[in-house]
Each structure stands twice: as structure tokens, then as C-alpha cells.
Amino acid sequence: MRMDLGSAPQRPAWPAGYAPRKFVLSDAAALHALLAEAYEDGGGAIGPLSDWRPALLGDAEFDPALAFLAEEESTGRIAGAALCWTPGFVKDVAVARTARRRGLASALMQAAFAAFRARGLSHVDLKVRPDNASAIALYRSLGMYEPPPDER
Ligand SMILES: CC(C)(COP(=O)(O)OP(=O)(O)OC[C@H]1O[C@@H](n2cnc3c(N)ncnc32)[C@H](O)[C@@H]1OP(=O)(O)O)[C@@H](O)C(=O)NCCC(=O)NCCS
Q: Domains in the chain, start-ordered, CATH in brackets?
């Protein structure tokens, strides 16, 4: 699905008790755990930390400034993440089960859209499994759409 960045995206509205923060290298294990938990019911897949961590940090399209995290303020735990690649691709979006339906994924995605727009990109893409109804509903609610095959 695609988000056009021609006009300024909505400003992220962070739900009470959660705050955005920057990714640091020591977050890798906690981010992996969040993704593993989020993908347990389908929606995506992630390999073991020992493979995933070096692949992530060594990827030429990885930029820690495009790893958007939301922290639960009372515990410091990572409750949500949107992990993006520099060409304008959202690779992973995940929110801990206990933190869902509060607007966290929406805020993370809007932060990602704003960052890509500031870098001059015209659009952001992502892939979603056709049976992932909750993610598709999220992306549609943000204004994302299915581009025609010849524009992908
Ligand atoms: C998909 C996911 C990231 C959504 O995170 P979230 O923080 O709960 O999403 P938000 O609260 O920002 O939801 C925004 C809107 O998206 C839609 N939405 C989100 N989850 C939904 C669900 N389970 N059912 C229906 N609509 C849903 C709704 O329109 C919602 O607005 P509303 O709550 O006012 O109705 C989360 O469910 C998740 O981590 N799923 C597992 C991992 C995954 O599938 N990631 C996507 C890979 S492509």
C-alpha cells in the first residue's frame, strides 16, 4: 500500500502514557521481542535475534533515525515500533497487544510519514498480507491506498 506525501501528514497524536523516542543500538533485543510477539498471530515473520540483529544493523537501507519507537512511560518498555528503510519503505509496524487500539500505530506511522516528507520523498510504500485485516484497516484509516500495478 502507498501513502502520498504531497501534503503534510497529520501530526502524530501520542496516546496518554506513551511517548516517542529515538532508537539506540541497545534497543535491538527489545525491538526484536516486540516484533516476535506482534507477529505470533500472523501478519509478518521475523527470524532469530542472532540472525535478525546483524542483518538489520548491516543493511545499507537501515537508518536508526527511521526506526520509530513508542515507549510506555511508566515502565520504559517499547510498546510500539515502525521500522523503515531509507528508500521510503515501512518494513515492520508492531504494537504490543496490551497497547493496541489507542492510536499508537497511527502516531508511529504519521511520524514516519513526516520524516520521509522532510527528506523529500513523494510517497511511502509497504507490503501487507491480504488476510491482515487490522493492519489494512489501520493503513486505510491513514489514507493509504493500493497503487495500480504499473506504479508499484
Ligand atoms: C496492526 C497494528 C500495528 C495496529 O496497531 P494499533 O496501535 O492497535 O493501531 P491504532 O490504535 O493506531 O489503530 C488505528 C485505526 O486502525 C484500525 N484498526 C487497528 N486495529 C484494528 C483491528 N484490530 N480491527 C479493526 N480495525 C483496526 C482502526 O480504524 C483504528 O482506529 P480506531 O481504533 O479509532 O477504530 C497492531 O494490531 C499489530 O501490532 N498487529 C500485529 C503486527 C502486524 O500485523 N503488523 C502489520 C504488518 S503489515
A: 2-145 (3.40.630.30)
